[in-house]
Amino acid sequence: MQNPRGVLHLHLGDVRGTPTTTLTKREHDGPRVIYLTPGMVLSAMPAPLVGHKFGVGDIRPPEPEQAKGIRVLGLSGSSRRVSGISKSERLLIKAMDRYKEFRCETTFMRLQDLKIYECEGNYSENPEYCTYPCQSSLKYVDDQMQVVYDGVLGTDIHVLATPIRWNNHSALVQKFVERMNAIENQSSWFGNRMIRNKVVGLIIIGHVDGIQHVAGNLLNFFNWLGFHIPEAAIASWVGENDEDTTKDWEQIQRNRYTQEDLQNMIHSTLRLAINLKIGLGEVEEPPRKT
Does residue 158 sit in the same domain as residue 210? Predict the structure, then answer.
């Protein structure tokens, strides 16, 4: 049989005496796992991906005119006292600069700079007690979580950046997550959905630790809030096993996969936010009958 370039032929024979079957697969289709079932019924499905090939699946940028006026909130969950030292925060700032190139309206916010009290778990006593405005915001005059609430509710795209702390997001991000119960409970208990037509993206930076556990937890959280998750929602980097963090930022800047992930996350969040703006996304729900 001829074997043209770019085509792989697999000859599969069944030990039961079933005639030999030839399966043809083009290489650019990506890896496939072939499963043999009784009766030689063949099915193919993508194999689990480990990383990705550079330059495959690039997401085209939207036209700047389409993106003009899209509101983007960049929220840093780093605990570093000085702005710009954290590597996750640096990548977030870089993302904000790129959003500005699309004529977006950007807001940069650091959780570390705000006085935010812990969630006091009012929901655990009675869901009726978990309200918006949050009870902690009403109770403590110096609590600044309302600044974050206003930022989240007033944005089209929310990009959250976090370092990895022992295979989890940072403690500041966890405090943010728990205080956002006041928003989520408005929908799940009171029937007042406050998050509509909003898109989320993540920047996750770690050393030795993996990103998938952190990304899974946070995307699950944002999904419960009502955020839309684009096709490329995560830009990440994980360092080497040598524990030398002094060279991390240089490696992040040189890593073309991380830079491509960042570009795809920006383009993907923008394209989805634009579609939601022009009415290709959610359909408004009719008012509830009382």
Answer: yes
* Domain residue limits at 189: 64-277
Task: Say if residue 83 is in the same domain as residue 26.
Answer: no
Going by C-alpha positions, the residue among 137, 133, 131, 233 that lies closest to residue 185 is 131
Least confident range of 29-43, 130-144, 206-220: 29-43
Residue 232 CA: distances (Å) to CA of 20, 66, 260, 265, 272: 41, 19, 11, 5, 10
Average pLDDT of the chain to the nearest whole number: 82
User: Residue 283 falls within a domain, yes or no?
Assistant: no
Q: How far apart are CA 76 and CA 89, in angstroms?
A: 6
Are the CB atoms for 277 and 199 separated by under 8 Å?
Answer: no
CA distance 273 to 140: 35
Q: Would the pLDDT of 17 be above 70?
A: no
